Amino acid sequence: MKVIKVKNSEEAGLRASIIISNRIQNNPSLVLGLATGSTPLPTYEHLIANNRKGLISFANVTTFNLDEYRGLNGQHPQSYRFFMNENLFKKIDIKLDRTFIPDGLNPSEAANYDNLIAEAGGIDLQLLGLGLNGHIGFNEPGTSFESLTHIVGLTDSTIEANARFFESKEDVPTQAISMGLKSIMNAKEIILVATGANKALAVSQLVKGTLSEE
Ligand code: GLP
Questions:
Q1: What is the pairing mode between strands 62-65 and 31-34?
Q2: Out of 67, 68, 114, 124, which one is annotated catalytic?
Q3: Which of 36, 43, 90, 138 could be stapled to 16 by a disulfide with Cβ–Cβ 3.0 to 4.6 Å?
Q4: What pLDDT digit, counting tens, does each position of 123-140 carry?
Q5: DSSP code of residue 139
């Protein structure tokens, strides 16, 4: 693991976008794992700018998103499909049918998500954020290292943290479909971006703590 310390979220986004752009330049058919949340937004802005400048093309890139709320359709403004369309996909030259996100309305398809990833050749580079309690995707602390894409129950702390995006806490779905830790660790390379003082504890435990499912 290589730790890169930067000044702020803007610089973190720039650094992550440089790595991703470089991998796309070297492999135009890259299979890219993507994340939602506020953390990746600066990264996405730089990728959009690089695409507009003609430095990178997503025309042959395939993407797999980590997770989706259970019960929300892709038109729901808080669904991760909607988030990705608005914040990235509509603004770059990607083919929408090469962008995969677990289907919040068809949780039974979760079991097939890892097969789709494998059929695409596996994820070359996975971008990750980090939840306040250390969750990755929607894998709450304690999730098995062997987990594949599965339905998860969200903890109270995650529901509370994500309530800022909904009208009220009661509107936050209590379940999600998330790639598992094994699905994520199968990626050939991973960039985890964490910014803000409220992530400090999770980051220090990630970097200095003992390896565990917590
Ligand atoms: C959600 C997502 C995670 C994300 C986390 C942190 O729970 N499922 O993938 O890492 O939020 O969000 P933020 O980047 O807004 O702090």
A1: parallel
A2: 67
A3: 43
A4: 999 999 999 889 999 999
A5: B
